[in-house]
Design goal:
Strand order of the largest sheet: 1-2
Number of helices: 5
Helix content: 55-70%
Strand content: 5-15%
Structural class: mainly alpha
Distance between the termini: 29 Å
Largest sheet: 2 strands, parallel
Number of strands: 2
Radius of gyration: 15 Å
Shape: extended
Order of helices and strands: EHHHHEH
C-alpha cells in the first residue's frame, strides 16, 4: 500500500473523465448514491478508503497553501 504523495498522471486523469463506462452510467441514471461502494464491491471500497487516507496529491497540497 502506498503512503505519501501520489504521482500525478495527466493521461489517467483525462481518461477517467472521458470514460465510456462513466458516460453510459451517467446518461442511463444507474448511479448508486455516495457510500454505496460497500454494497457493490466491499473489497475495493475498503482498499480505496485506506488508500485515500494514507496518500495525498499535489492538488491537495496546493489547496492547503491557498487557504
Amino acid at each position: 500500500m502506498k503512503v505519501g504523495l501520489r504521482t500525478p498522471s495527466l493521461s489517467k486523469s483525462i481518461a477517467a473523465r472521458s470514460s465510456w463506462k462513466r458516460k453510459v452510467r451517467h446518461s442511463a441514471g444507474l448511479k448508486a448514491p455516495r457510500g454505496y461502494g460497500w454494497l457493490t464491491d466491499p473489497k475495493k471500497a475498503a482498499y480505496n478508503r485506506i488508500y485515500n487516507r494514507t496518500t495525498f496529491s499535489i492538488w491537495d497540497l496546493l489547496k492547503r497553501l491557498v487557504k
